[in-house]
């Protein structure tokens, strides 16, 4: 059987994502060395016969010297999301790269869809207002989950899955295309129309601070903003000002910049901002889905079948934002 190695930061990452059952499966398919190849021990290892790399969070970029020591390398199977930090050099040398970014999109889409339903019911605003018996008699201003408009900013895999999940409800789901040249709906219009606005833009320099104070101030009365994309895409200073000026709004932030917010940040104390510690992506039981994703493509690779999750050069320019 062909030689394969694990490459990344530490064995604990592979125990977490793959687990022994899936590592044993790989050992039945390859001559897998379970001693993890790291940046620190790379040049101490005999890797000349290695044909496959299996990795996850912690994969490091290769240097020319590293490639020279792995002349038979054919493919990298990355059980995690974004590959923009390392994949380009492999692709330039004809080494295939497979990523589990589609699998990682599933829990994010589930998380967002649940938040959207709760937001339409007014759950978050109601919960923070339940401080006395009189709250039971206060007007219920949320629209409910019927016939409302939900705006998705970005049209990648997560946004597509959210739209598919929400098809079970009677909702008008509008989408802003990720690439500006393809847009028929503007970010500005999406913020004005949606009772819930959810950010799913790709992680790129062009998208930094593209969601600004004026966008949030334009939102409907009582509207909700969700961010599971990237914190850098929000102009935080302007966002904080808007949330202070519009206490009727609610923001659900699973991502910030930096992460975590520094001590003393208003994000910790603004009553209409809910923070979670970047939990939308794959975690605990869910990470095994990513391992299964790349192992499935490895089986296809061995059988000479088309790969379902192969990374291309074009994809590197627009890596999905929620990949972690």
Radius of gyration: 22 Å
CATH topology description of the largest domain:
Rossmann fold
Instruction: Report strand %.
Output: 15-25%
- CATH architecture name of the largest domain: 3-Layer(aba) Sandwich
User: Structural class of the helices, strands and pairings?
Assistant: alpha/beta
Task: Report the uncertain regions.
Answer: 320-324
How are the strands ordered across the major sheet? 7-6-8-9-10-11
- Domain tally: 2
CATH class of the largest domain: Alpha Beta
* CA-CA gap between termini: 32 Å
Helix-strand sequence = EHHEEHEHEHHEHEHEHEHEEHH
Overall helicity: 25-40%
**Per the principal axes of the C-alpha atoms, what is the gross shape?**
elongated
Average pLDDT level: 95
In CATH, what is the homologous superfamily of the largest domain? NAD(P)-binding Rossmann-like Domain
Number of helices: 12
| Total DSSP E strands | 11
Largest sheet: 6 strands, parallel
Your description of this structure?
With 324 residues, the chain is α/β, with parallel strands linked by helices. It has two domains: 3-100 and 284-316, NAD(P)-binding Rossmann-like Domain (Rossmann fold, 3-Layer(aba) Sandwich), CATH 3.40.50; 104-275, NAD(P)-binding Rossmann-like Domain (Rossmann fold, 3-Layer(aba) Sandwich). It has twelve helices and eleven strands. The protein has helices spanning 11-17, 19-29, 64-68, 87-92, 101-120, 123-129, 157-166, 187-193, 213-217, 236-245, 287-303, 313-316; strands spanning 3-7, 31-37, 50-55, 75-78, 96-99, 148-153, 171-176, 196-199, 224-227, 250-253, 273-275. The chain has a six-stranded parallel sheet, sandwiched between helices. The chain is elongated and about 70 Å long.
């Amino acid at each position: 059987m062909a030689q394969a190695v694990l490459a990344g930061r530490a064995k604990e990452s592979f125990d977490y994502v793959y687990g022994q059952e899936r590592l044993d499966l790989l050992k039945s398919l390859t001559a897998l060395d379970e001693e993890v190849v790291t940046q620190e021990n790379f040049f101490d290892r005999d890797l000349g016969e290695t044909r496959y790399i299996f990795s996850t969070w912690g994969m490091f970029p290769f240097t020319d010297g590293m490639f020279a020591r792995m002349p038979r390398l054919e493919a990298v199977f990355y059980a995690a999301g974004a590959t923009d930090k390392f994949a380009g050099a492999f692709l330039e040398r004809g080494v295939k790269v497979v990523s589990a970014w589609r699998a990682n999109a599933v829990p994010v889409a589930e998380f967002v869809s649940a938040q959207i339903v709760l937001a339409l019911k007014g759950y978050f605003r109601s919960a923070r207002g339940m401080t006395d018996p009189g709250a039971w008699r206060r007007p219920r201003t949320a629209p409910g989950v019927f016939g409302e408009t939900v705006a998705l900013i970005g049209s990648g895999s997560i946004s597509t899955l959210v739209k598919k999940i929400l098809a079970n409800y009677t909702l008008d789901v509008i989408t802003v295309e990720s690439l500006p040249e393809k847009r028929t709906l503007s970010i500005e219009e999406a913020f004005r129309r949606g009772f819930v606005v959810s950010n799913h833009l790709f992680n790129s320099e062009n998208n930094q601070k593209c969601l600004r104070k004026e966008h949030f101030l334009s939102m409907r009365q009582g509207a909700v903003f969700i961010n599971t994309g990237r914190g850098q895409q929000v102009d935080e200073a302007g966002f904080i000002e808007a949330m202070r000026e519009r206490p009727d709004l609610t923001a659900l932030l699973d991502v910030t910049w930096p992460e975590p917010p520094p001590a003393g940040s208003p994000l910790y104390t603004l009553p209409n901002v809910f923070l979670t510690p970047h939990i939308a992506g794959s975690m605990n039981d869910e990470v095994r889905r990513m391992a299964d994703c790349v192992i499935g493509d490895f089986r296809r690779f061995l059988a000479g079948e088309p790969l379902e999750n192969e990374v291309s050069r074009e994809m590197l320019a627009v890596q999905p934002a929620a990949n972690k």
